[in-house]
Specification:
The complex is a heterotetramer. Helices cover 48% and strands 13% of the residues of chain C. Chain C is of the alpha+beta class. Chain C folds into 2 domains: 39 residues, no CATH class; 318 residues, Cytochrome-c3 Hydrogenase, chain B (Orthogonal Bundle), CATH 1.10.645. In chain C, strand 4 and strand 5 form a beta hairpin. The N terminus of chain C is likely disordered. Chain D is mainly α. Classes of the chains: A mainly alpha, B mainly alpha, C alpha+beta, D mainly alpha.
């Protein structure tokens, strides 16, 4: 493991201590939840919910997630290019413009199709 | 060195065990969580190989992107219905045969190639600025694959939208 | 450009979800319960379930003498108690065939218009809060407080005032009443502009309210909605002008109307109504006539047999009282026509096709008070 | 024993740093909540917390204790393991990312070659906490809130990524320290070269932290409390901690990338070197305020603790400022080779960094007090129809500008502003298209 990364792990460990320690302390001092009657039943604004809470939600979310992955990959490609911009110079720029152009065409298609509209 | 080896075995074990849990859990959300653990330990393995950029990309894309997509998809299916169905109905023997073939292939490749390709050592000592290296290689030596990648992304984009629409009609 | 319906007709998702809002919900203005049928986040149907605050006020009215019942009406629309009291007192006065003396009518007008401002301020604050602007509510409550202070000085109560009596007023105005009212009007002028600065031009506010919950003029009339909701749809109807009561015939004021009947128009209408109310108050307070404050109605109020329907322009719309007298000291039948209840009828029409977030905006723009809806 | 010490020695300083950063962030998170309540209160013509300690200064502690004592409710039908895990993920993600933030040239936990990428990666893990928490609760409102939240976060992450790329074009490195050093070397904060990218980053940062006007996931007037509706007690406050830590985090990223990180304003102008004494001035002013408030409280028994606390704070602030002004020649060894005021010089970086971060945080709170909330489709439309194309345009025009400046020999700021103008043109076209 490269040494520079060890502190990150130590920090993650410390961060893990927050919930562990606080929840442990809370467990010691808080009252026990009492499961009386309908007390722990989920409710919506005072009324028992109708239907399954984990029902299916719109496909819009799914489309957005896929588009996000696509665009995310695209930005990841941009990072090494941006960092090495000085070295790659004009050639790299043209390369990137072609790359982006293809995706911008895709974006415009999405825009025209209304795939980006929510409702 | 001891530390490095020890951490490799720990990470590898975590990756393998959680991978097994991914396919044995019945609740898909639990599977997804174990898959996240697997991906995370693989990212750490990359890190151990001094492949920082790949490790970061693994976290951003696989965990921050694709796993979110997976969770969305899981939330789009009726979980309770899915849970009641037997998980590998009808097709378990196809899957088994495919796995067997792949395993034989893998062992064969390793066995046949044991003399020709020595496993490379991880680069020792200080880190290479490997984002820069990747930038240079990708944009100078592998220009065409890079541009093709953007076409691939375009196809993915179009595919996602068309799929959502086709099912709608 | 695009044909959005291309893709958005959904598949995988698209289970219809029944979402329940209320009675314990921060944005249903009390104990309104709304059942929403959702497609994703889009509302495809709604049902209002009311009655959580039902106390049988009308039935109580049939078992109380006329003066005894007067405090109960304060508790229907409890944020506009003065207006409720005015409507009831005037209805009984019509039944008795008396008219309150001019001084009483002037004071009644001033207090009712103050109450209109107070009610609209409460609406503005909570409506903005529903749409996510958390600050205006504190500003509007600051000004509302000044009005409540005037009420408190006048009759000792702030919320359920019971300010008027059948036949006129119980109390003479206190010393400095005119000054207090004028001072309020002076300060209020710039305050109402300040709210406007916060919201009227605010891009997010406009986007959240424009074209949301459109109610066409025809629909509004068909559904019987009244008050700012009706005027927001472009119908110039105001009982203060159509059938003047109290002292409204004496004063000049405009009736603001909207063009498109959306939430933003209703917002503008109510904002302008506050300015007009201020105008009425200023005219009235400068011309309060001298004279008695209570007409001769006798110690025991016993209207002759008969029936009356009297309505006033309450802050939320037409507030009507239908009273049937059988000649005893108690009404034979009493019925209140509450503006909130009727306006709520328009809810389903306004909410269909909008998103969950618009539901709270539409509840807010209807400006309902559950005490009045359920009675 | 000495051997153990010798082996531990290289780890000691980093460990101390880790602890200082960790405790510092925790403290700031706690007091950020207090600051938000106070600032919002003053925007809304009220006082805010006043009872617990002078001017409510101990309110965060009281809040923490209250939350510890709350009953821990898990709704029936919740997925127990996931329900417990989700807030923990959020907290870890939000806090761990701070290990990559350079607070000062000599004060950061670690610096890695791909620092920025790692930051994005770690903070994107926080999304999982939200989506899993909403799903595990077994209730409509949290699930809807979680889905909304995730869709919002991923949408704005794309715009954020492009904005970061624009800054990287100028910096030429992913290391957080090197990014600040690049700004030092070029003698200009990137915000002046890339205003559009900064704006996009800022808006995306607000959206990423679910703050008003993008606080739909927890829009209390619609979804009650969004994804954490069913959480109670300290489990709820873990989400809360994570949200506020994330606020500080995105501010830190923005400061590092665009506002010159630890650099003092006008760091190169020698005539403004007196600005180095700002920390002392701030401390003295704070002490003066403490003393004034202390004597404004009535000198009775019930106010004694409050007065003592204020007095202590004032004396402490004065003491620290005195320590900062300790000249080098009073140190043992005459302070050879040290700057004139070693302590003051040592804290410069952290002071300026945190000041800029607080400026951001104040902006967050101010927005919350001012703006209504967007509707979900409007938010998504703003993200996908406006922010992302503008961000892409910005990347293209700025990279063109850099090449132009190199080929034509024009000054970099001039060409970049040309690029910015082109981006703004695109933005204006997009706005009109929508209207």
């Amino acid at each position: 493991m490269p040494e520079n990364y060890v502190p990150i792990l130590i920090f993650a460990g410390l961060a893990f201590l927050i919930p562990v320690a606080t929840l442990w302390v809370a467990k010691l001092v808080r009252p026990d939840p009492r499961d009386v009657g309908y007390r722990l039943k989920p409710y919506e604004c005072g009324i028992p919910p109708e239907g399954d809470a984990r029902g299916r939600f719109g496909v819009r979310f799914y489309v957005i997630a896929i588009l996000f992955v696509v665009f995310d990959v695209e930005t990841i490609f941009l990072f090494p290019w941006a960092v090495e911009y000085d070295v790659l110079g004009l050639f790299g720029l043209i390369e990137m413009l072609v790359f982006l152009a293809i995706l911008i065409i895709g974006y415009i298609w999405l825009y025209m199709k209304g795939a980006l509209d929510w409702v | 060195m001891m530390f490095a080896q020890g951490s490799f075995y720990v990470l590898a074990a975590v990756a393998v065990v959680s991978a097994l849990l991914v396919i044995t859990r019945r609740n898909p959300v639990h599977s997804a969580i174990y898959l996240i653990v697997t991906l995370l330990s693989v990212a750490l393995l990359y890190l151990q190989l001094q492949a920082e950029f790949i490790a970061a990309v693994q976290i951003i894309l696989y965990i921050g992107g694709i796993m979110v997509l997976f969770l969305f998809v899981i939330m789009l299916v009726k979980l309770d219905v899915a849970l009641r169905q037997p998980p590998f109905n009808q097709q378990w023997w196809v899957a088994g045969a495919a796995a067997l073939v792949l395993a034989v292939e893998l062992v064969g490749v390793i066995y046949l190639g044991r003399g020709t390709a020595a496993l490379p050592q991880a680069p020792p000592g200080s880190l290479q600025p490997n984002t820069e290296l990747i930038g240079r290689t990708l944009y100078q030596n592998y220009m065409l694959p890079f541009e093709i990648a953007s076409l691939l992304l375009l196809v993915a984009m179009v595919g996602a939208v068309l799929m959502a629409r086709r099912k709608a009609s | 450009m695009a044909q959005p319906q291309d893709i958005s007709t959904t598949v995988l998702g698209a289970d219809e979800i029944i979402l329940n809002m209320g009675p314990q919900h921060p944005a249903t203005h009390g104990v309104l319960r709304v059942k929403l049928k959702l497609d994703g986040e889009k509302v495809i149907g709604s049902e209002c379930i009311i009655g959580y605050l039902h106390r049988g006020v009308e039935k109580i009215g049939e078992n109380r003498s006329y003066p005894q019942f007067a405090p109960y009406v304060d508790r229907t629309d409890y944020v506009a108690a003065v207006s409720n009291g005015l409507g009831y007192c005037e209805a009984v006065e019509r039944l008795l065939g008396v008219e309150a003396p001019p001084r009483a009518r002037w004071v009644r007008t001033i207090l009712t218009e103050l109450q209109r401002i107070a009610s609209h301020l409460l609406w503005l604050g909570t409506h903005a809060l529903d749409i996510g602007a958390i600050t205006p509510v504190f500003y509007t409550f600051r000004e509302r407080e000044e009005i409540l202070k005037i009420f408190e000085k006048y009759c000792g109560a702030r919320l359920t005032t019971h300010a008027f009596r059948i036949g006129g007023l119980q109390y003479e105005t206190y010393d400095g009443f005119e000054e207090d009212v004028k001072k309020f009007c002076r300060d209020f002028e710039e305050k109402v502009d300040e709210y406007g600065e916060l919201l009227t031009e605010n891009r997010i506010w406009v986007e959240r309210t424009r074209n949301v919950g459109i109610l066409t003029a025809q629909d509004a009339i068909d559904l019987g909605v009244t008050g700012p909701v009706l005027r927001g749809s472009g119908v110039r109807w105001d009982i203060r002008k159509a059938f003047p009561y109290a002292a409204y015939a004496q004063f000049e004021f405009d009736i603001p109307i909207g063009e498109r009947g959306d939430t933003y128009d209703r917002y503008l209408v109510r904002m302008e109504e506050m300015r007009q109310a201020r105008r009425i108050i200023l005219q009235a307070v400068d011309s309060i006539p001298e004279g008695p404050i209570l007409a001769r109605v006798g110690k025991v109020i016993k209207p002759p047999p008969g029936e009356v329907y009297h309505s006033i322009e309450a802050p939320k719309g037409e507030l009507g009282y239908y009273i049937v007298s059988d000649g005893t000291i108690q009404p034979y039948r009493l019925r209140i026509r509450p503006p909130s209840f009727i306006n709520l009828e328009a809810f389903d029409k306004m909410v269909r096709g909008h998103l969950v977030a618009d539901v709270v905006a539409i509840i807010g723009t209807l400006d309902i008070v559950l005490g009045e809806v359920d009675r | 024993m000495t051997l153990l010490l010798e082996t531990l020695k290289p780890y000691l300083l980093p460990l101390i740093r880790v602890l200082v950063v960790f405790l510092g962030i925790s403290l700031i998170v706690a007091y950020l909540v207090y600051a938000e309540r106070k600032i919002l209160a003053h925007l809304q013509v009220r006082l805010g917390p006043m009872r617990v300690g002078p001017h409510g200064l101990l309110q965060p502690i009281a809040d923490g204790l209250k939350l510890l004592l709350k009953e821990d409710i898990m709704p029936a039908g919740a997925d127990k393991g996931v329900f417990l895990l989700a807030p923990v993920i959020s907290v870890i993600a939000a806090f761990t990312a701070f290990s990559l933030i350079p607070f000062a040239p000599n004060f950061y936990i670690t610096d890695v070659n791909v620092g920025l990428l790692f930051l994005i990666g770690i903070s994107s893990l926080g999304i999982l906490g939200i989506i899993l928490g909403g799903w595990a609760s077994n209730s409509h409102y949290p699930l809807l809130g979680a889905l909304r939240s995730t869709a919002q976060l991923v949408s704005y992450e794309v715009a954020l990524g492009f904005a970061l790329v624009s800054a990287l074009l100028l910096a030429g490195t992913l290391s957080m320290v090197a990014i600040v050093e690049a700004q030092q070397r070029q003698g200009v904060w990137f915000v002046f070269l890339q205003p559009v990218a900064f704006f996009i980053l800022f808006v995306a940062a607000i959206a990423e932290t679910n703050r008003n006007p993008f606080d739909l996931p927890e829009a209390e007037s619609e979804l009650v409390a969004g994804f954490h509706t069913e959480y109670s007690g300290f489990r709820f406050s873990l989400y809360f901690l994570a949200e506020y830590a994330a606020m500080i985090l995105v501010s830190s990223i923005a400061v590092t990338l665009f506002l010159g990180g630890w650099l003092r304003p006008f760091a190169r102008v020698r005539a403004l070197d007196f600005l180095d004494f700002t920390p002392v001035a701030v401390l003295v002013l704070a002490a003066a305020w403490c003393f004034r408030e202390c004597f404004r409280y009535p000198a009775t028994r019930e106010w004694r603790w409050q007065r003592l606390l204020l007095l202590g704070l004032g004396v402490g602030a004065l003491g620290i400022s005195a320590g900062l002004l300790l000249p080098a020649r009073f140190l043992p060894g005459g302070g050879e080779g040290l700057p004139a005021f070693p302590a003051l010089t040592a804290i410069q970086g952290v002071f300026w960094f945190m000041s800029k971060v607080f400026l951001f945080l104040f902006g967050f709170i101010w927005f919350r007090g001012t703006f209504p909330r967007y509707r979900f489709d409007q938010l998504m439309s703003l993200g996908w129809h406006f922010m992302i194309p503008v961000a892409i345009a910005n990347v293209i025009f700025c990279s063109l500008a850099i090449v132009l400046s190199r080929q034509m020999g024009w000054g970099l700021p001039a060409t970049l502003w040309l690029g910015t103008a082109a981006t703004l043109l695109v933005a204006a076209l997009l706005r009109r298209e929508k209207a």
